[in-house]
Amino acid sequence: MAEKISCILIEDEPLALKLLEKFSEESGLIKILASTGNPLEAVSLIENLKPELLISDIQMPGINGLEIFETLETKPLLIFTTAFPEYAVKGFELDAVDYLLKPFDFQRFIKAIKKAEVLLESSAQKPNPEKIPESIFVRSEYSAVRIPLNEIEYIEGMDSYVKIFAGSRPVLSLITMKAVLEMLPSDRFFRVHRSFIVPIDKILSIRNKTIFLKEKEIPIGSTYEAVLTTITGQLFAKKPKGMQS
Predict the structure, then answer these.
(1) What is the model's pTM?
(2) Could you give the CA distance from residue 81 to residue 164 in angstroms, rounded to a whole number?
(3) Structural domain of residue 176, as residue ranges?
(4) 143 lies in some domain
């Protein structure tokens, strides 16, 4: 295979994640797009970066690797790592390329990667760069909550929390505005104030540095005024009816 396999690593144990990174780099077969110990962040990384291969631990807090993979709309090839052999059957039910039982050595790791390489070569499987994420996962209380992007009306920052207004009731999550913004498609969601993120498709009009949504008026912060040009440019490009600026 001429090109390295694009890959995302998911492992909540720091030492185990460093080992995966070390093996991946030493293999000469893998291009690491991202590595994370946060399973919630992983979902957005996978949907945005669209790797050819996912190497993921199974047992992680909040959501496990099996659940992550099952939620993906576009599924990369999959190699599971775990210390629990009872997960093997479920892993192979999801058409996993291989199952690495911890602790595994470099040669066993290479064997798994070679399997993925053969599958990519034989099927010419390529990620779709036009595919955009349709949902994000955030932690709320003791659960991982899936939020469809098209349901998000706006997001409000509250100290170290954010409140995501979507669907029938807002979701409160312990996450920063910066972190949640990085999970969202940059051409669809804009931070317009230190306390607000808005989806462009929910904007009804803009007037006097105020964004009007269906049930909310959002001020445009002075340090975010430059983004107004981008927003209005996209809105007018879509030729919405009744747009004011």
Answers:
(1) 0.49
(2) 33
(3) 149-237
(4) no
What's the total number of domains in the chain? 2
- Tokens for 155? 């997001």
CATH number of the domain within which 201 lies: 2.40.50.1020
Per the domain annotation, does 111 fall within a domain?
Answer: yes
C-beta of residue 9 within 8 angstroms of C-beta of residue 21 = yes
Distances in Å between the alpha carbon of 160 and those of 9, 176, 179? 27, 6, 11
Q: Alpha-carbon distance 107 to 94, whole Å? A: 24
Interval 171-229: pLDDT, tens? 999 888 988 888 888 888 999 999 999 999 899 988 888 999 998 999 998 888 778 77
Same domain, 38 and 72: yes
Same-domain pairing of 39 and 108: yes
Determine, yes or no, domain membership for 113. yes
In this structure, the strands spanning 53-57 and 196-199 are unpaired
Give me the long-range contacts of 156-161 (CB less than 8 A, separation at least 24): 156/195, 156/196, 157/194, 157/195, 157/196, 157/197, 158/195
Give the strand order in the sheet containing 205-207. Answer: 205-207, 210-212, 217-219
Kindly report, residue by residue over 75-91, the tens digit of the pLDDT.
788 888 877 665 554 54
